[in-house]
Specification:
Layout: H1 2-26, H2 38-58, H3 61-72, H4 78-103, H5 106-114, H6 123-136, H7 143-167
Helix pairs in contact: 1-3, 1-4, 2-4
Length: 168
């Protein structure tokens, strides 16, 4: 009983830490007003890395042993643990999926950032790709994500034009 109590304390600490990671990941991001679309990809790559590391830890043999001991003891702490495990899995899948879709835009980021106002030739393909992401992504097809992405694309176009005008 004493061992079970100590293991439950450990799981409760993990639960609190995982909740904190989830809460922080859902907070509104503070970004500069002129940040470009590559920042969106970097954000999701970072998030994917964090959640994958967390998943790796959750699936480690040490954690699995503790969870199986608590399962055998029919611990009440496991209900919360299972919910958090599911939430982490969903968050990791979302990040992985968003990175995969945003990588399809990566080929446009260079011409958008380093070009001249002639970058217009890339815009139809870029918009078509964004439309495909919206139509096919199970996670990224929200108005919040699309608004953020279009804002960053627009920021990049404005920055490129400003740079071109200041150099000319």
């Amino acid at each position: 009983a004493e061992l079970i109590e100590k293991l439950e304390e450990v799981v409760m600490i993990w639960t609190k830490q995982i909740r904190q990671v989830l809460v922080e990941s859902e907070q509104i991001r503070r970004e500069a007003d002129d940040v470009g679309p590559s920042a969106e990809l970097e954000h999701w790559k970072s998030r994917m890395s964090s959640f994958n590391s967390l998943l790796d830890e959750i699936k480690s043999s040490r954690v699995k042993k503790i969870i199986s001991i608590l399962q055998a003891a029919r611990s009440k702490t496991l209900k919360q643990w299972k919910e958090l495990d599911g939430s982490i899995t969903i968050a990791a899948n979302e990040a992985k999926d968003n990175v995969r879709y945003l990588y399809t835009l990566d080929k446009f980021f260079g011409p958008l950032a380093n070009g001249s106002p002639v970058m217009m030739e890339h815009i139809p393909s870029l918009i078509h790709t964004v439309c495909m992401i919206y139509c096919t992504s199970p996670y990224y097809n929200t108005s919040e994500h699309m608004t953020s992405l279009f804002l960053k694309i627009t920021n990049q176009m404005i920055n490129t034009c400003k740079t071109y005008l200041c150099e000319g």
